[in-house]
Write a structure and sequence with these properties.
By secondary structure, the protein is an alpha/beta fold. It is built from 18 helices and 19 strands. It has helices spanning about 5-10, 35-45, 80-100, 120-135, 155-165, 180-185, 190-205, 220-235, 265-280, 300-305, 345-355, 365-380, 385-395, 400, 405-410, 410-415, 435-440, 445-459, and strands at about 55-60, 60-65, 75, 105-115, 135-150, 170-175, 205-215, 240-245, 285-290, 290-295, 310, 315, 325, 330-335, 335-340, 360-365, 385, 420, 425. The radius of gyration is 22 Å and the shape is globular. The model is unreliable at about 455-459 (pLDDT under 50).
Amino acid sequence: MQFLPPALLDRLGSAGPRYTSYPTADRFVEAHGPEQHLQALVQRAQGPGKVAPLSVYVHVPFCESLCYYCACNKIVTKHHERGAEYLKLLDAEIDLWTRNLGSRAAVSQLHFGGGTPTFLSDDELSQLAARLRDAFEWLPGIEASIEIDPRTVTRARLAHLQSLGFNRISYGVQDFDPKVQQAVHRVQPFEQVAQLMRDARELGFASVNMDLICGLPLQTAQSFAKTLAQVVQLRPDRIALYAYAHLPTRFKAQRRIHTTDIPAADVRLQLHADAIAAFLAAGYEHIGMDHFALPGDALAQAKRQGRLHRNFQGYTVQPDGDLIGLGVSAISRVGPTFAQNAKTIEEYADALAQGQWPVVRGIASTRDDLVRRSAIMALMCQGRLDFQALADAHLIDPKVYFAQELEALASQAADGLVQISDQAVDVTPLGWFFVRSVAAVFDRHLQADRARERYSKII
């Protein structure tokens, strides 16, 4: 793949912030707790932002079986009665939100993630959806999506999800090769997913996403090429292609993966490049980073029209606004603040039992954070940092404010990732594949870390 040089993939395609927020979640501090979160809600109620539509994210942490690659906050259990107990906790947290937001706040985006949201029974999903409809006003045209483990649903279950108001679904596939599936403890035959894709089409879901991972154990160029051909054959509206990061010291489940089975670095780069080539050849448009969509999908249309946004659900057509995060580890955004819930059910439940917010950490953005957030999101979503627009929004001279950053971008301009003019920084078609590396130049927190690392090495 000539237009995506392996050397660039090796140098700029490494792990880094995905910028679903800025500051990123690793910058959250425990000093920002329940009291600060409540204060942010009070300020929201007094400002113009209270009328803007909300996004709602619900985290369901349960999974029936352990996928060895997974780095999500999850609880592996076959005790489905835990679902009913968890719904009671969610109900208590929803009460806290409605008490402070007022009843029937408007919602334009809803997403169920996990874990495995379809761990819940049909009756429990109905109960949760009804509770959310009672607490919030679901606006016409709401984008309601849910993550699905194909092993947990049938056509009847898909129909039930649609009856609850879900119009977008995401299948976790990762890889279709049986040996790879066995190596990561997630066996789901191609025929099973193919049938569910047909079912989703016939039922009329607005969009179907498919998640893939490259760099999994036992993946080869030949085996992954077959998976890519099968994915293209199924023709999902959207594809998310993630790179596996092997961090067994952080994620216990990954210790079950044999390090010798993980493809070498050059093979992983080739897998990534091959996937991109396959999707583009099949007519998919590159949305940004590792996301692709068919030209007729709302996400592709939004990118072409400059209406793309980004939040904790990733790229979205929803306008930038506040986010309600419900459940363990869920993150909320209220105005310039972010707050994250406790990561264990025990701590989450204990706070709710006392009538308190289950928030354990967060951050209040500074003025500098807000300026940099605007710059980063402009690059991540529109692929263009317009100096005049930034000046008008924040009353600064961007070329002075970001003098060091613009100087640092010179090397990326030399690589053909950006074009810098007197009016703007524009991300090139090649640069879109490395857009988070471009955006990272404006991340003050990250650059400070790198400066400290360089200093430490010197001494």
